[in-house]
Amino acid sequence: MRIVATLKNKDEIALLAKIGADAFLLETNLFTRAAESPLSLETIKELVKAIHRRRKKAYVLLNTLIHEADIAMLDEYLEELRRIKIDAIVCYDLTVILVASKHKLEKLCIYQPGTMSTHPKNLAFYEQLGIKGVTISREITLEEIMGFFTEETKIEFSLMGHGYQEMFYSQRKLVSAYLNHQGLPHDTLAGANLSIREKQRLDQFFPIVEDRFGTQIFRAKKLASFEFLSSLESKIQDLFIERRFIGDQEYFDSIKAYKQRDFLTFVDEYGKEYDTGFYLLPTEKLKGDVS
Amino acid sequence: MKTELLAPAGDIEKVKVAFLYGADAVYIGGKSFSLRARASRFGLKEINEAAEIAHKNKKKLYVTCNIVPHEADFEGLEAYLNDLEKAAVDAIIVSDPYVVQLAKSRTALEVHLSTQQSVTNSLQTDFWYSQGVKRIVLARELSLTEIKDIKANTEADLEVFVHGGMCSSYSGRCTLSNVMSLRDANRGGCAHSCRWEYDLFQNDRLFAGDFQIASRDLVALEHVPALLDIGVSSLKIEGRMKSIHYIATVVNSYRRLIDDYYEGKLRPIDEYFAMIEKAENRQAGSGFFQGNPLEKQQLYSTGSTQPTKDFCGLVLDYDLEHKLVLVEQRNYFEATDILEVFRPEGDPLQLTAGELFSDTGEKLDVARHPLQKVKFHSEIPLKPYDILRRVNT
User: Does B352 contact chain A (CB < 8 Å)?
Assistant: First the structure.
């Protein structure tokens, strides 16, 4: 199992590699939404070289939905990624895989469609696409996740196993719309950390991010997979450690914890802000399904 | 080819009303595998009945199988698809790739791809077409220009939402309900958490106590001519949970607009809006058709617009000899109220009941009780499924 860490800049490569990152996820300035460190293609080229010099893997995150007008630019972008020998393309939209296949890059694609990869019966579909792997949805239980591993498949599995988890993606700019509604300037909240709180759930603050791609809302508590790792680690190839809204030291400590399997120290320090997501929490189809 | 008008229906009566009032096709959700399964009144018997009604009227019936399933949800799926094929439904609406493959490999069902897949470009429409999907229900987040570009570059039929509720997120990409209430939005359990009230915090300090993330409903009347120019295959109305009056009013307004377009007799768009406003609609906007929406497309208060006409009753029968109409009451009305007769074709007529009687002939002071059978004299010959509305004064 590779530990995949989000990289902010070149200076971090040595440290992250030392403490346990096996692969580095690079956010782009063109096709990554809610990016904390959006990188230009030129910077990505430099970083990929530096990552490869350390014999680590370089992944790029393309997590926007692709509209008609984006296709030509995506086509050029993927050609550049082919040239710089990127190791994996983590993509949210099936369109990226379709364009990647024109460049014979589909074998590098890790399909990460968020809420949509909820069962293993789609493995034949993923194999037909010729992709490298799929990230299993965060909204299913550990038992359901384990069901993926009983299938014979060439598809690699990955999990977004740690950190703040997205729960809403809209093309609407909800913060700007609200400011407009109130007659306030657009930059009123520029640079601020924003969160929303539902009026009946007073202890839960959901981080909210607006960028040019729209609005993303995240769960209130960060996800930790520590107690399930022994069940998962021989079955998944990539464990993504999410970095959004997390301080550098806490992030580095999380990488160390997963690498060294030393969870107690981390939990002692940060545990109150984490939960186990849906690993043990089945959801209902109909009200009252799950008691 | 003429663009189809596609309407929702939550029960058999609404299927009949939708067809009668102008839908070319109706979509329904069964008790299984549908995002509206919790409210469905369509078991296999009713699905068969709805298909018969559709085909008798030379219209089409589609059935949604559009949940994003978990492994345990597949039990009975193949048998269900076979049953839908036997019922001769005209298409199923699907969001999951495996369900697409299963339907294509085991049945001859026509498959449409649900908007839950958020398809936003022609590469994807053509990919799904190559997988045997005949029609793609496009993501709601597309402008008219984008829809036109997709249409120009794809072989697939395109379906576009024109009216009704809108997810604030990309459809299928929201798990607010899962997180906040453990109800799975993608398996029919959506708690509509986007319509709840929120506070907005800036760096841990309260910035606003009235923040909202919900979107207004969609009313795209003014964009229908452009969509017809583009040549999309189907215009879709949302609202399987809506009333008969809503279905009849909304479907008929779009029917008249589409027919007027093809006959070259388009009226000022305000006239079609006036028709729609006779039914209750939530606050509405025109969605993404003119680009990315801002505050005018968001819902900052939860009130509905008041309908300009109250739905008083549904005509069940008319006795031509005695000029007596039998009505099923839907809202309070009095003998002296002016009632508008709304029917699928022609201009609305007006009448006054004068005297009201029960179905057993007893005189009534008012029609007070929901579903109460009421008779009164009408010189205007009425037909079953004519709708009576009280004219507000």
Answer: no
**Domain match, B39 and B163 both:** yes
Predicted ipTM of the assembly: 0.95
Looking at the complex, does the CB of residue B290 fall below 8 Å from at least one CB of chain A? no
Neighbour-count burial of B31, counting CB atoms closer than 10 A to its CB (0-12 exposed, 13-18 middle, 19+ buried)? middle
How crowded is residue B312: how many other Cβ atoms within 10 Å of its Cβ?
24
For A206, other C-beta atoms within 10 Å of its C-beta total: 23
Q: Which of B121, B140, B144, B202 to mutate to test the interface with A (most CBs of A within 10 A)?
A: B121
Are the C-beta atoms of A153 and A117 separated by less than 8 Å?
no
Domain extent for B41: 4-299
Which of B299, B333, B368 is at the close of a domain?
B299
Size of interface A-B (CB pairs under 8 A): 205
CB contact (8 A) between residue B175 and residue A189: no
pTM of the model: 0.95
- With 70 as the cut, is the pLDDT of residue B271 above it? yes
Are A33 and A63 within 8 A, CB to CB? yes
Contact criterion met (CB < 8 Å) for A95 and B182: no
The stretch B92-112 carries a mean pLDDT of 97
| Nearest CB to B189; choose among A120, A125, A287 | A287
Mind listing the pLDDT tens digit for each residue in B57-80? 999 999 999 999 999 999 999 999
CATH of the domain at B253: 3.20.20.70
Last residue of a domain, one of B299, B324, B354: B299
Please tell me which residue of chain A has the smallest CA distance to B101: A125
Residues B317-332 have pLDDT tens digits of: 999 999 999 999 999 9
Q: pLDDT tens across B193-202, in order?
A: 999 999 999 9
